[in-house]
Amino acid sequence: MINDARNLIINNSEKIFGEITIPGDKSITHRAIILGSLSKGVTKIKDYLISEDCKHTIGVMKALGVDIKESKETLVIKGKGINSLDKPTAPLYAGNSGTLMRLISGILAMQPFDSIIAGDESLNKRPMKRIIEPLESMGAIIKSNNNLPPLCFSSNKSKQPINFSSKIPSAQVKSCLLLASLFTKGKSIINENISTRDHTEKLLEYFEYPIEIDNKKIIIEGEKEFKAKEISVPSDISSAAFFIVAALIKKDSDILIKNVGLNSLRTGILEVLIEMGGDIKITNRNIIGTEPIGDIQVKYSKLKPIKVSGSNVVKIIDELPILFIACAACSGVSEFFDIAELRYKESDRIKAMEVGLSKLGIETKSTADSLTIVGGKFRGGIIDSYNDHRIAMSFAIAGLISEKPITIMNTININTSYPSFYSTLKESGAQIFQS
Ligand code: S3P
Q1: Whose CB among 60, 299, 329, 380 lies 3.0–4.6 Å from 402's, allowing a Cys bridge?
Q2: Which residue CA neighbors atom 13 of ligand 1 most closely?
């Protein structure tokens, strides 16, 4: 069921129990749609994520002339190759999706036609300099609103490969430049100082596109072809994280989540929660396509506080809000360093979590790039989600153990990544209401 309510109310509930189905991975769905659209032949994408963000990716690729048919479980894309995109007849719209805007910019910046892409109010405030500068070095001509969206691309007549070393660890920037490199003659080199999620590289390899990966250095040759193939999308570990923390903090809980994507650059959340004392077991490890998967069993556990910093942060960047809830729920002081990037997500997530946690009676302290949380009891209250899906879902999970109900305002954006969150949480034992 689509959660179309403005506000959610969660009461201290029964245990969370049983098998939980988590929808497809958002990062992989975006990339599969984009790469399928550039390949030659029919790409079928099974178990893809049907959410607002991914619908915008489908919409953008259709507006660029790609033939895409949607059914409930499978997306069928008839790609006509790398140089087959049409000039869009109207500005493109990325909604709330930073991944879509940054990835598609790599393609739009290299086309022989002009285009414009804009986002919603939140996306139009997110930094784009990180992609504008390297794309300009590849010959792109981009106008922006002071390095913020909308982005206007002029026809690129002097496409060049890039030799790039990332300053900010970002899979979106890396993927943007990998996609741009597809359209240039010659070899591009992309160096990461901290490894970020590698779904784009893995999918390119799967599509048999020539790409060399040597630890943190990627070498990619432009103007080659890739073969259309069938792709199965694993369940999204970032969405599973809400239920994993729910089971860990809610007494007597015991859940099983099947076929979750276990890409080693995404499983930081499991490593941290296990270090905190979480009873988490992985079974049935397998590979689908190029991505590792497995089943995750989670039981209620007495958690200990944690300290996280440095290169570990990038592996849990999207799971930090729900991890903050786990830390706030266990006694002791948890500390997070090097988390400045959290301020540039769908909301300033350090601020949104601090404001929300303090409403619940939890003591926090922050600097520009750190957060300290003193664990305690949640007393309940009214929380603003700042229109951020992951903030809304994190506080919904906090509601499971709160002394009084938690009301979360402005939760419609849960639909950007996890439209069935509400119904799945209700079915697994939570007392949750919409208003
Ligand atoms: C994503 C990369 C990350 C992550 C985002 C999805 C991706 O962003 O936070 O939700 O699919 O590439 P950054 O690249 O900005 O770290």
Answers
A1: 380
A2: 170
State the pLDDT at residue 328: 98
To test the pocket of ligand 1, the residue of 170, 174, 179 to mutate (highest count of ligand atoms within 8 Å of its CB) is 170
List CB contacts of 19: < 8 A, sequence separation 6 or more: 255, 256, 257, 258
In terms of pTM, does the model score above 0.85? yes
Residues 6+ apart with CB under 8 A from 300: 15, 247, 248, 249, 250, 251, 252, 253, 254, 279
Q: Which of 202, 265, 317 to mutate to test the pocket of ligand 1 (most atoms within 8 A of CB)?
A: 317
Question: In 3D, which of 61, 71, 43, 54 has the Cα closest to residue 289?
Answer: 43
Q: Is the shortest distance between the CB of 52 and ligand 1 below 6 Å?
A: no
Q: So what's the pLDDT on residue 1?
A: 43
334 by DSSP, 3-state: which?
strand
Task: Output the six-digit token pair for 314.
Answer: 């990038």
Please tell me the predicted confidence (pLDDT) of residue 5.
Answer: 58
51: three-class secondary structure by DSSP:
coil
Name the residue type at position 102.
R
Q: Is the Cβ atom of 171 under 6 angstroms away from ligand 1?
A: yes
29 close to ligand 1 (CB < 6 Angstrom) = no
Atom of ligand 1 nearest to the CA of 30: 11
- Predicted pLDDT at 337: 98
Question: Any idea which residues carry the catalytic annotation?
Answer: 318
Weakly modelled stretches of the chain, pLDDT under 50: 1-2
Structure tokens at 51: 């959410």
416 lines ligand 1 (CB under 6 A): no
Quote the tokens at residue 323.
Answer: 């991890």
Q: Ligand 1 centre from 108 Cα, in Å?
A: 19
- Long-range CB pairs of 202-210 (<8 Å, 24+ gap) are 202/263, 202/289, 202/290, 202/291, 203/28, 203/31, 203/32, 203/35, 203/231, 203/289, 203/290, 204/35, 204/178, 205/290, 206/231, 206/289, 206/290, 207/35, 207/39, 209/182
Instruction: Report the C-alpha gap between 376 and 333 in whole angstroms.
Output: 10
Cβ neighbours of residue 298 under 8 Å, at least 6 residues apart? 243, 244, 247, 248, 253, 254, 255, 257, 278, 279, 280, 281
